[in-house]
Amino acid sequence: MDALEIARWQFGITTVYHFMMVPLTIGLGLVVAVIQTLWYRTGKPEYLRMTKFWGKLFLINFIMGVATGIVQEFQFGMAWSEYSRFVGDVFGAPLALEALLAFFVESTFLGLWIFGWKQLKPAIHLACLWIAVIGSVFSAYFIIVANSWMQHPVGVEMVNGRPVMTDAWAVFTNNTALVAVPHTLFGALAVAGGFLLGIAWYHLWRRRHDGIDTIGADGKVIPGEAAGILGRDRSDHTVWIRSLRIGAVVAMISFAGTAVTGDLQGKLMFEQQPMKMAAAEAACHDGTGFSVLSVGNLGAKNCDDIVAVIEVPGILSFLAKGDFTTEVKGVNSLLGEYQDKYGTTLPDNPIYGDRAGQQIQYVPVMEVTYWGFRMMIGFGGVAALAALLALWATRKGTVPASRGLMRLAVFGILAPFGANAAGWIFTEMGRQPFVVAPNPDPSGIDQVFMFTAAAVSPGVSAGEILTSLVVLTSIYAVLLVVEVKLLVKYIRGGVASAMPELAHAPVDENEDNTPRGGPGKPDDDVLAFAY
Question: What does 124-159 look like in DSSP terms, one character per residue?
């Protein structure tokens, strides 16, 4: 493995890991903001409980997302300095706005929300959360603007071999970004919906398993109370059944949203990166049929031995052009066009080092694009179907007593995460061999592109990048264990884990204003909600 391959593995591992935090942070933040709004408007205690419980999990994930996201910035200079030099004039604006505006606003107002439960008026406290959540959405928008420019460069001119931004409006309203942003937000909400559904199902099952909730003669649930445990009362049942239903509805709406925006995104990809979409379909030859299942050597440079076992005529044309008859170019036709435009071998340029003269592989790894595309759709569809079934299964106020179904519901939390990760990997891997894909617009802007082979830092050895890969992967593994342990701890603790006052009887104060529970007990812990 040379430095380029190791650097790609490093960026891929750290990015996919970080991206696991991002959709949950954005989606769960929006859901918590809506729930707190319901509490503010109705005053119902169950909405307060929901806000604090789901808010606690949101904060744990937010902290881990920040910790893992910082590494992404450093990699631009450590492993990808040539890439940073090439895109710096364009990326400076969106990345600066993300860090100095969106993230600053997000973290500041989130801090006010964490520590302002008793210090701020309810309306101002709620506004702080909404501002923080909106800040996270804008943060995602600026990052997607930067990434979309890599997928479809616009608004620049080439000056001394580097793109220089000449039209900021074109960059920030790139049609690739305008479609990718809502697609990403719907994907984030799908993750949040599945998260609520799985955890709420677990707690409703526990209440049945522990004998707190029973089933009446009519088959409907009779919520009960656990004697001596204030956190597991009738309101606790309301918390979980409402959380489950909110999660299920959010999951189904999100799947519909991702399907619509995904269709728009796919049509843009057929125009802007036709080889990516041809590889995603394993479409070697021109045609109109969509391959549901293909067999053969998807990793071969020549894809002629790939055979479509199940193919639906006309669907590929609909995905690409919106009709059922227009032929879509396949890999073999596109390969010749790419070679004519961009050459067959890497240029004899010092920037490529030992890779100069190597043959350019314009066909991305089809195992990744083909199955990634199907996993993205498949996991999303499974999550939406599970949400629909969950609504039906809980129509009488609780979940079935089956332990197996409970485990399936909890395990199902991973499905939307899998859909998001598969979609991200497909998008990035399908762009290869370009780190900045050429714009096929006939206006002549297609001169703006960069091969991935030219993007890696020339002064960094394979051994140095391998060392950082091992170190970062090890640290991320430790962080994964920490996050999972924290989440499991507070999930199992239920609402009482975020509201200690529900698990401890109120205490009187001594004459010196020290709670009888003693210093440091939950009764006097002003940071109880903020860990």
Answer: HHHHHHHHHHHHHHHHHHHHHHHHHHHHS--SEEEE
